[in-house]
Amino acid sequence: MPGDQSTSSTNFNSFVKGPKNMFKLLGIKLQKQGNLISTMYTSFVVISATIVAILQLCQILTSDTSDPHRVQNVVYITYFTVGLGKILNILYRRSILIECLSELEGIYPVREMERKYSLQHYLKRYKRAEYFFWNFAMFLISVYNLETIVRSLLQLYLKGRYGYLLLVRIYTPFPYDGKLLVYLCYFTLGSITGAWIAIIIAAADLYLLGCVLQLCLHFELLTKQLMELDTRILTESEAIKRLNAIAKYQSELIRLSRKVNRTFSGSMIVSLTAASFIICFLLFQLLGDVQLVDIAMVLILLLNESKQVLLICYCGDKLLNSSQRFNESLYMHNWVDGSVCYQRHLLFMLLYAHNPIMLNLLDITDITLVTLKEVLVVYGAAYRFFTVLKTA
Description:
The protein is 78% helix and 2% strand. The chain is an all-alpha fold.
């Protein structure tokens, strides 16, 4: 089983360093004793994002039904809702997440064991995902801010007057047209909260991916250790001792898997429901008479929402396959030559792990790549419905 924690903490920290630093940008520190300044800053982030979401809703309710940006406003408010849902879920489940990370760190295999069983590919896969998620979040923030500024400057060039466009269309109780200071306040509020939301989504998704990939790493380690267990070479007591150690390790992983699922269930529900809603409305917007720049912006946001759905389904499928392979190894390893007592212990393990581990939403539905297929079917149906609605 995993050895000294101090010799394996470096690789474990590589799994959590990225999202941990992202959360620090939001004032969230995964410690049991949080300090007052961080708590106040996090509260400021949540309150600011909530205010922007409410102002967006007011803008939708007060705008004319013929407003061409109405659908886009609905998309933006849903995007903010996703981020708020994720950060509130993390704050609510903070103590459980801290426990999960602490327990995962405690059982992380030492570097020698990682090399022996060729487990390094999990960290490499995670680092690639982390690099993509962080850079895509920065790309999203930069592009949307730059697009707003460029459009305003373009109006200055064409009409001789700065456009005063906002990144997020919100209800403005204090008119800002021609008032630079008021405009900058509104623009900064929308820009900063939009950046916070992008970071929240990336960090929460990376924590989910990191926890799931570590669980998969442990299941693969268990599978390989079990396949090495040869009852023809070992004495009965030694074989049973090793099998019991594996059984204890297995029980710990099953318990941890359920805890991880419970920690991120709120985030997964918000992502799947809101992302589906956003994607359908973005497809609807593409059916209209939109400019090329608007199409590009819609496609960027469409990619951002699609990656959330894909990530959750990938995590569920990866955990399912890893735990399933371990269950199969219970049958495949050399148990035939084991003693009756050994086989009895093995039978208890088979009964305990007869079902593979899966992510699920409130015990209602399991999440795998099959879920992604079902979601794509819903997207197709929604797109056809909106096409008929648009042409009616």
